[in-house]
């Protein structure tokens, strides 16, 4: 039986996957040192993380790139197709609806919702923006399990509760506020200023 | 003399700051256990991370919330005002130009640039979209050090090189491609699908 994978390792798996995909096509092997450099962690951590997947490099040879991509993808559930709805179709909602990276990663946007009647009915990347009242129906029909919240802060909690009632089990919150997770639902918040703050740290240190 | 702060700690400082800000206003103390729960790490790690800042909680009392916010902000260089330019004013560029979270964090957007003549001259949140030819001038005038790249993938490397030539020292890349860092410039990539992949992991595990 496979043991539980630590949270911190789970966080790094998408990073390793992205690094593996950035290797020149045709490169069949990668060392833990090279992967560590690309991912910005140390090599011992890479080996430890990947050992949780039952993946071990061969000394002096490294890891098989294709096999490792496949293993990480399987672990992340990316062989499966995830249906996603987006609520709040402002600039960020539009940007995410068009984000090419999602489909590559098995995330299929199946519904766009907005509370603004002016936006309802508009077409975007092959989908029509629908009113909030249609949310439960679309989530059920499409078997959506993931919801992205890109509303203004004041609407985010109510929207999260509606998503949970509709059957959504995971919420990615881009609204600049903290959402209380409805029962049985995971909420992750994305704060777009986090990475800028990390940059700021290093600039600050350089003086 | 203060020792170097480990990279992984730097990554978590913005998370702690956000957690501290999510506490009810008026709460003056927080334990490492509570902060750990909010941040999704373990309490020993919180204490270790904060000790790098010279910040130690008092047993049974915890950390002083305001003092800790101040210390983290100082460490991240947030007492300083950072001038930021954005290149590529599609939906994501617009969303970031309007992102309220940036100004709260001392990041002031001072220039918006696009290669598309149709967009140049449009007004957005008090700024006018300018042609790429104006980039060096605006960066110099405003003392901008941080550049955000929200162009299509094929344009990202060229834009990064132009930013570096203009004097930008840190680049945040949202384009879905890997940028080779110009000399003397830090590049960080934001992959918006990373968090979705972490959600997918947990959904997949739940079955």
Query: What class, by secondary structure content of chain A?
Result: alpha/beta
Strand order of the largest sheet of chain A: 5-6-4-3-7-8-9
Uncertain spans of chain A: none
- The share of residues in extended strands of chain A comes to 15-25%
Describe the overall structure.
Two copies of one chain form a homodimer. Helices cover 44% and strands 17% of the residues of chain A. In chain A, strands 5-6-4-3-7-8-9 form a seven-stranded mixed β-sheet, with helices on both faces. In chain A, strands 1-2 form a two-stranded antiparallel sheet. The mean pLDDT of chain A is 91. In chain A, helix 1 crosses helix 4, helix 2 packs across helix 3 and helix 7 crosses helix 8. The first copy, chain A, is of the alpha/beta class. Chain A contains nine helices and nine strands. Chain A has two domains: 69 residues, Orthogonal Bundle (Arc Repressor Mutant, subunit A); 108 residues, Rossmann fold (3-Layer(aba) Sandwich). At the A-B interface, helix 1, helix 5, helix 6, strand 9 and helix 9 of A face helix 1, helix 5, helix 6, strand 9 and helix 9 of B.
Task: Annotate the secondary structure layout.
Two copies of one chain form a homodimer.
Chain A lengths: L6 H16 L6 E2 L1 H8 L3 H9 L11 E2 H11 L6 E6 L3 H7 L2 H5 L2 E7 L9 E2 L2 E4 L4 H8 L3 E4 L3 H14 L3 E4 L12 E4 L4 H13 L1
Parallel strand pairs in A: 3-4, 3-7, 4-6, 7-8, 8-9
Antiparallel strand pairs in A: 1-2, 5-6
Helix pairs in contact in A: 1-4, 2-3, 7-8
């Amino acid at each position: 039986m496979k043991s539980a994978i630590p949270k911190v390792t789970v966080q790094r798996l998408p990073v390793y996957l992205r690094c593996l995909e950035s290797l020149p096509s045709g490169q069949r092997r990668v060392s833990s040192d090279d992967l560590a450099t690309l991912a910005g962690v140390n090599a011992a951590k890479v080996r430890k993380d990947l050992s949780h997947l039952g993946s071990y490099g061969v000394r002096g040879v490294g890891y098989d790139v294709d096999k490792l991509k496949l293993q990480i993808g399987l672990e992340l559930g990316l062989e499966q197709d995830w249906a996603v709805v987006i609520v709040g179709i402002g600039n960020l909602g539009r940007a995410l609806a068009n984000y090419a990276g999602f489909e590559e990663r098995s995330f299929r946007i199946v519904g766009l919702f907005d509370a603004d009647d002016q936006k309802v009915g508009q077409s975007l990347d092959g989908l029509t923006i629908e009113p909030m009242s249609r949310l439960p129906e679309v989530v059920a029909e499409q078997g959506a399990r993931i919801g992205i919240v890109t509303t203004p802060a004041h609407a985010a909690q109510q929207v999260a509760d509606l998503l949970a009632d509709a059957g959504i089990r995971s919420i990615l919150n881009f609204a600049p506020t903290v959402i209380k997770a409805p029962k049985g639902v995971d909420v992750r918040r994305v704060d777009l200023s986090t990475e800028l703050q990390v940059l700021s740290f290093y600039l600050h240190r350089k003086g």
